[in-house]
């Protein structure tokens, strides 16, 4: 493994398992050395070992990481990784058509069945879940999570740290403020302010939220 890339998947939950399957579909699973979790609940996940996150201090700098954590904890762990000088990589399922007009920053995960068109910008450490649609000129800020089956229309701008739930539809030219949470099945027809919980058809702003109470929403 001396001259080969060595990859660890950050997390050991459902998103981590799905991410490992992407590597299997890419026939690159041999590069994945294991999963890292703050407090491991098992010694193995699928066919790879699970290690304590504290182990990273002993890693060499040729190791790269994929942040497969579906909660706001993703940002905290990524910041720790970056402070230690390690790099992050993106992984894209082979079923996803990618062209030169799509920009995907490091640390992002693009799951099976996602369709993206043109002039799209995906920020750092985003997760775009299965069967989501991202249309022309859409922009996702850093650490955005797009739930399965979401439909993001053209010219939509989603601020950093936002969560778009399962099956959400956002019509064209809408802006979602940073740190907002859009509940499953919502149809967003108006701009959503930053740090706002919104849901419904059509979606309406319910209340202000912060990183501290996100765990009650997901």
From TrEMBL:
Site annotation Increases basicity of active site His: residues: 137
Classification via CDD domains: LbH_AT_putative
Keywords: Repeat, Transferase
Active site: 136 (proton acceptor)
Key word Transferase present: yes
Pfam family, one: Hexapep
Family matches, as InterPro entries: AcTrfase_PglD-like (IPR020019), Hexapep (IPR001451), Hexapep_transf_CS (IPR018357), Trans_hexapeptide_repeat (IPR050179), Trimer_LpxA-like_sf (IPR011004)
Any one GO molecular function term: transferase activity
Binding site for substrate: 70
The name this protein goes by in its record: Uncharacterized protein
Organism field: Candidatus Roizmanbacteria bacterium RIFCSPLOWO2_01_FULL_35_13
């Amino acid at each position: 493994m001396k001259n080969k890339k060595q990859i660890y998947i950050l997390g050991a939950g459902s998103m981590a398992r799905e991410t490992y399957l992407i590597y299997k579909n890419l026939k690159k699973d041999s590069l994945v050395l294991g999963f890292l979790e703050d407090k491991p609940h098992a010694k193995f996940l699928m066919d790879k070992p699970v290690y304590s996150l504290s182990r990273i201090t002993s890693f060499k700098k040729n190791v790269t990481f994929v942040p497969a954590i579906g909660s706001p904890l993703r940002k905290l762990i990524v910041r720790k990784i970056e402070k230690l000088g390690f790099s992050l990589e993106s992984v894209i399922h082979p079923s996803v058509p990618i062209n030169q007009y799509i920009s995907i920053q490091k640390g992002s995960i693009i799951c099976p069945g996602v369709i993206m068109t043109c002039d799209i910008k995906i920020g750092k450490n985003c997760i775009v879940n299965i069967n989501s649609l991202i249309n022309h000129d859409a922009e996702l800020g850093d650490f955005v999570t797009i739930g399965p089956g979401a439909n993001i229309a053209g010219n939509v701008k989603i601020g950093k740290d936002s969560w778009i739930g399962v099956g959400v539809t956002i019509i064209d030219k809408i802006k979602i403020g940073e740190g907002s949470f859009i509940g499953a099945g919502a149809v967003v027809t108006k701009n959503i302010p930053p740090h706002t919980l919104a849901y419904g058809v059509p979606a309406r702003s319910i209340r202000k939220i912060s990183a501290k109470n996100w765990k009650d929403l997901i």
